Amino acid sequence: MSAIGQLVSGVAHELNNPLAGISAFAQLLLAEKRFPPDQRTAAETIYSEARRASRIVQNLLTFARQHKAEKIPTAINQVLDDTLELRGYELRVRGIDVRREYDESIPETMADAHQLQQVFLNLITNAEQAMEQRDGHHHRLTVRTRRGSDAIRIEIEDTGAGIPANLIERIFNPFFTTKPTGSGTGLGLSISLGIVREHEGRIWAENPPQTGARFVVELPITAPRTSGEQTALPHMQSMGSDRLRVLVVDDEASVRVSLQRYLAGKGHEVETTASGEDALVRLKASKYDAVIVDMRMPDLSGEQLFERLRSNDPAHAERVIFTTGDLVNEQMRRFLDGTGRPCVPKPFEFASFDQALPAARRRA
Ligand SMILES: Nc1ncnc2c1ncn2[C@@H]1O[C@H](COP(=O)(O)OP(=O)(O)O)[C@@H](O)[C@H]1O
Ligand SMILES: [Mg+2]
Prior knowledge:
CATH architecture of the largest domain: 2-Layer Sandwich
Strand content: 15-25%
Shape: elongated
Bound molecules: adenosine-5'-diphosphate, magnesium ion
Distance between the termini: 34 Å
Number of helices: 12
Mean pLDDT: 85
Largest sheet: 5 strands, mixed
Order of helices and strands: HHEHHEEHEEHEEEHEHEHHEHEH
Number of strands: 12
Helix content: 40-55%
CATH class of the largest domain: Alpha Beta
Low-confidence stretches: 227-240
């Protein structure tokens, strides 16, 4: 996994543990029969919000695993222009002057333009926010590039209040923010740091005299590789005989989408459906190596789906992997134990599916 991926997935995993605790305890409360209705509603809200938060975490994990830097020859000035274009409207509305001081002699370098744009976008957005906080000034955003002997230096400078000296060491930490809840996540700079490191570059902040904050990014100048290596894309590696056909049956769209992306990223062939009945139709029509089934679905429960397969289509029943967010349910646990099939609890870690999936493709 990339450096940025490691950072994001580290953060996501850190969040997953407390979230699992919150949702587990909310479920324990919900299992309590003599609860007054208003407290029950409160517990339900805690439970559903914990689930929502864990879906966000899943998305982060998916993002982390998906986004490998794909480095191609890149013109840094062009990426800066594209980013400024993206923020053009906001900058104009806020009356911020944009000054470009580009070194036109900088060569192309191997980089992932998409990721670098993310870095510049974070820096420019921060600059806008810093300047907005300081009313009554004439504000200016300066974007500067310069060619060094073996590196390209990019500076983004604002006329805000600058960064307090005692905070400058901490601003790149994940979740560090001085902005009010809702407006700052504290992730912009830590994600930027991850991306820049992945490009073997450096990023830091300065408080130059007379002006606000200055962020400096230094990227090494790297020439494209001459051999054909580049054409071997990273995700091609996982293709081969371990490529499985997987059907995901879950009524929750975010689960379907994230599992789809994750498994497809591993080179598997994935189909999804929100309906148990539809799953039966598909299973009748063709063969799957694995069927990931949510226990709770509106039309046909995971239990009913499994029972039907067990009597009519035992080969597919042998390929079922259950998922549930409801492992505290005693009855469900007994059912699951009886099937002898694996069950991945929600909120899940994708890696759990790697272990649960069959090792090889089923022979027709
Ligand atoms: N241009 C800037 N001027 C002043 N302070 C800044 C600037 N950019 C970043 N910071 C400080 O760094 C903190 C972290 O930034 P960031 O990681 O982007 O998270 P967020 O913008 O969500 O707070 C900000 O909350 C702010 O205190
Ligand atoms: Mg920010």
